[in-house]
Design the sequence.
């Protein structure tokens, strides 16, 4: 143990000197085991500091090493689905030196990022994309006559997404050199849901058959001209049996060779199964069983809690690090918009038997654990399946139920057609609780909630609220449920409400007339705008604030108020194109208003940093707003 | 035969007097057969006149009758996926009298429409939604303590869509009274693709096993306390066998009871299997085999051609009825935007080995049959799987290939997150050939292509072209492929280019200065605007035209030109909210312009009619534009 420790310490240092990933193929078994140990240490010490996904990465240490020993990245292409399990991959492809910059401004991304390394061949911030992507790569290889492999590593959580199935279905009939590694940790994000999870556990419990099958196929795969009569006889029996029973596994039904299950922490077994997988000239699924949190007791015992670990130092958005000793996520979560929403909905659900709550594998993240506990009959975790979640809600609504789909802004993007075609055309009444709306910070481009407003405002029959405090979230939720028809969305940011900014709880707007330039904003930026106005007033600059709570359709009152001013500054924590500022400007022009209008909003994708820093980069911090008002004042003076 | 014919004629008349669908349960077998015959006659004579989906409806005559005899609609809810196979359902639920108004203005919709009848419980213009919808309904029944059934009738084409799988996965573990009828006609829209199709044919060919299984399960289902030792023994053997081999069919893997396959034209077999299906207290899949076009020789022989039948009288959009005797769709299709696109892409593909073409089950509809024939290696029909299509394209692009996804505007809505997250963030270069952009006419709300512009303009790194003629389509396609980066979309309408309107082939814009009011428009409306200006000039009204070809990002030149005018009229065959008019207005205001700006665009969903009538309803016909210019002139005069 002591000796091993010494070795691994040496190896840990050595990681930075190895030619990665190529040198990994030169290591012997003992060295590999020691390397895995040192990787786990790096993961634990770094991620507890930087925040990020700990448990899932602890689970894939051996698998990642085996992949890089058996495939030649970046010529062979490895795609991680979802990408938050790619930390070990980053460490093993020469990024251990920067690993402590994980998820920080200008640091390593928490997800694969082609601009960061040639070993990150496809962006996978959202789940269930890897089979489609890997099949595209494999088909390009085929057309280009390139003999390399495309490997998709898919977590079992990602298997509930329809895109995963679309990819399998399309790839299954091909002759592509596509290998799908099913990383089955039986956990998904909180706890896996749906029939596919049940099905996996069924496969797992029948190792006898599949192992036998694997050996047969393996021998056949390795010796194209079958020598042994025994093997050939065994194969024929299996074939006859299979023909009789239609098919064996779901993956074979879809045209794949199925190998497994294999212990994902047994390096020799992994080496073996991967070399067999490579011997086929057609798509293969390798079923690997891993333990989420492997090697770190607290995470192994409670992987859900260590799925996403916040940063140690509070990033100013009110989220503190989850208490490491706390085992019950139902009580361990700090008060934030999500929990306020969840508790409010639970209370409403007590009075209203029609109320249903739906999540796509984000029960804790969206604060729905309270509703699930209180009203299990009307709570639905549909798995990572945002399309289905919305169509399902629309159907519940068509039956007189009152469904609320709580979802992160970025993942709602998956539901565009279901909101538009399956819900809006029929004018079914559903409520979207859009969590993580606006900047989310460290997860970067793939997770910022910058598109829900542009996306939802293209759809007829949609109303959008953007509350700026907990009490306002509650009144908006209640209005969305009981005053509105069609699709009503209540959007709120990640984290907690602003401190010391008492805002009246409105559902339409609040207006604070101080003459001068009119600031218009909504949601989280309201607090910054309020602070800015206080500073400006103290400096003797006249300035007014129009805070929208109903942001779409833009309230007529808001247009009337705006028309009383000659200079408007619109501040928007959302994309400019298709945003509320753009719509407000158009409305004002249509109404014959001809003052000066400036809009400060996001343009393009926002890179990772703390939420506060991201907001600064958008130019929407309190200081930015003060500066912007002064600039605007000067410009307006110059153009009378 | 003669006697039967007499009877059916009588029955056909009588259909209008029957209390539908309840009286269907009183018919004997002979009456049922006669009824089916008369329904087929109604279908053929009507659809050849009105246009619509003939072959798929001919295939479900017996199935629809059986469903309405075994379930009590509208208490039991039947959902058709995709909804174009619901004509027989409409006839059998009391709408035979209006059936000749199918797909016409104020007539019956070609899809289920809740506002039309309580028997149409869910809108299903897009495919693969029915399991999600039916499961939502079934869960509402459960919560409400209602004993009724939710029935989803899913065509095999819809089975490639990920949403279908998400629904199955979520429903499979439930105890819902959900029955999924798999309407397997082995055709999909053109020809089914993907592993699931192959899989279905495998099941079909193993009827021995599944029939046996069905009988066993059936007896067990009907007699909860099993009497016969034989049956129980048989079941045990099966169970042991199944446990050994992990599972049987894919549907059972996902938690459903599987029954079938059953001959979908055998009324007695259908009655039997449906009554068995109802005996379970959990989700059931009933696999029904039907023949697309059944009972009408031309359609039965060539169902692809009769999938969508255009109206007999040309509707002014240049599409004429497909020649009934023509068997080869590759030569039978009239010249239209789709074929011009398809032929141009095929020619480019000859010179460029990197060029790939992708369709989601719309090879003929999008004009890709030419490319498929010339470059089969680089042609991909992924099935109805628009999410996968885009992610797959993005992956091809990441490998240096040049993929073009040809897709109808309305179906592109399914790919929003794949365009945004899987493609735009990485700035992968793919081309979207957006067919049926703008008004499509008779298919109504669910199929109008009114959202591609609002949707795509919310996504960074997107460029959009809207050509107004065939030559312009070709230059735009070439620019999108070889001059642009990121996502380049070329959108064009259903049908053919305008007659006698020679427009210069541009890729940015064309400007025709005649003073007065500036009309700004793009795409199909350009022709109407040109005509209107000619009329206005003849009447002595000054008027100018700015025709955008690159519509997004709005070219800077367009803003500069617009700022030279004091009155602008923006004409847009697309949704107003998030549209180009709105963005142009905002840009002009930001630039300090303060003239008069009016925008005429679509607001909300556009109901079915001919394309010309729909455009009139938007106020975008030539006459409308002339009138609008005159009105604007008068208004401008009043407000100097």
Sequence:
């Amino acid at each position: 143990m002591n000796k091993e420790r010494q070795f691994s310490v040496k190896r840990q240092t050595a990681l930075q000197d190895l030619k990665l990933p190529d040198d990994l193929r030169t290591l012997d078994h003992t060295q590999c085991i020691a390397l895995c140990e040192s990787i786990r240490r790096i993961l634990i010490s770094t991620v507890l500091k930087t925040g990020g996904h700990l448990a899932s990465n602890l689970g894939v240490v051996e698998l990642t090493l085996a992949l890089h020993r058996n495939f030649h990245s970046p010529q062979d292409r490895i795609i991680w689905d979802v990408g938050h399990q790619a930390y070990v991959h980053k460490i093993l492809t020469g990024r251990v030196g920067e690993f402590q910059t994980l998820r920080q401004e200008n640091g390593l991304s928490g997800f694969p990022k082609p601009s960061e390394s040639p070993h990150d061949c496809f962006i996978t911030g959202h789940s269930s994309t890897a089979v489609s992507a890997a099949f595209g790569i494999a088909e390009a290889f085929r057309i280009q006559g390139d003999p390399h492999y495309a490997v998709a590593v898919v977590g079992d959580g990602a298997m509930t997404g329809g895109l995963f199935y679309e990819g399998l279905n399309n790839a299954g009939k091909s002759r592509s050199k596509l290998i799908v590694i099913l990383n089955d940790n039986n956990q998904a994000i909180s706890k896996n849901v749906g029939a596919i999870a049940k099905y996996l556990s069924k496969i797992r419990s029948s190792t006898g058959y599949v192992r036998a099958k694997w050996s047969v196929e393996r021998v056949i795969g390795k010796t194209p001209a079958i020598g042994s009569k025994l093997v050939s006889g065994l194969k024929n029996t299996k074939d006859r049996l299979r023909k009789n029973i239609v098919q064996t596994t779901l993956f074979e039904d879809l045209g794949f060779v199925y190998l497994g299950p294999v212990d994902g922490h047994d390096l020799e077994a992994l080496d073996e199964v991967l070399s067999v997988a490579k011997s086929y000239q057609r798509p293969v699924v390798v079923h690997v069983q891993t333990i989420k949190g492997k090697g770190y007791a607290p995470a192994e015992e409670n992987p859900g809690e260590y799925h996403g670990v916040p940063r140690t130092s509070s990033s100013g958005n009110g989220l503190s690090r989850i208490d490491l000793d706390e085992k019950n996520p139902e009580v361990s979560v700090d008060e934030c918009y999500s929990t306020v929403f969840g508790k409010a909905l639970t209370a409403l659900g007590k009075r209203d038997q029609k109320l249903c709550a739906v999540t796509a594998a984000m029960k804790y993240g969206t604060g729905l654990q309270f509703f699930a506990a209180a009203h299990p009959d009307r709570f639905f975790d549909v798995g990572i399946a945002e399309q289905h979640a919305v169509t399902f809600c629309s159907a519940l609504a068509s039956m007189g139920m009152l469904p609320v789909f709580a979802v992160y802004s970025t993942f709602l993007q998956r539901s565009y057609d279901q909101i538009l075609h399956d819900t809006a055309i029929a004018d079914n009444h559903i409520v979207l609780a859009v969590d993580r709306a606006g900047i989310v910070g460290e997860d970067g481009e793939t997770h910022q909630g910058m598109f829900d407003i542009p996306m939802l405002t293209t759809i007829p029959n949609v109303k959008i609220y953007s509350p700026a405090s907990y009490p306002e979230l509650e009144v908006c939720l209640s209005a969305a449920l009981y005053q509105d028809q069609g699709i009503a969305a209540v959007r709120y940011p990640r984290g907690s409400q602003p401190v010391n900014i008492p805002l009246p709880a409105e559902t339409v707007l609040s207006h604070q007339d101080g003459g001068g330039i009119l600031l218009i904003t909504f949601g989280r930026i309201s607090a910054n705008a309020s602070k800015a106005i206080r500073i400006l007033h103290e400096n003797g600059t006249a300035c007014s604030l129009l805070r929208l709570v109903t942001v779409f359709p833009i309230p007529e009152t808001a247009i009337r108020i705006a028309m009383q001013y000659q200079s408007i500054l619109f501040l928007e924590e959302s994309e400019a194109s298709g945003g509320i500022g753009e719509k407000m400007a158009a409305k004002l022009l249509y109404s014959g208003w001809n003052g000066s209008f400036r809009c400060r909003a996001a343009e393009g994708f926002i890179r990772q940093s703390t939420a506060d820093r991201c907001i600064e980069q958008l130019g929407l911090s309190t200081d930015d707003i003060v500066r912007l008002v002064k600039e605007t004042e000067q410009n307006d003076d110059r153009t009378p």
User: Anything to note?
Assistant: Chain B has a mean pLDDT of 88. Residues 29-50 of chain B form the longest helix (22 residues). Chain B touches chain A through 119 residues (CB under 8 Å). Residues 2-202+249-289 of chain B form a domain with the Rossmann fold fold (CATH 3.40.50.970).
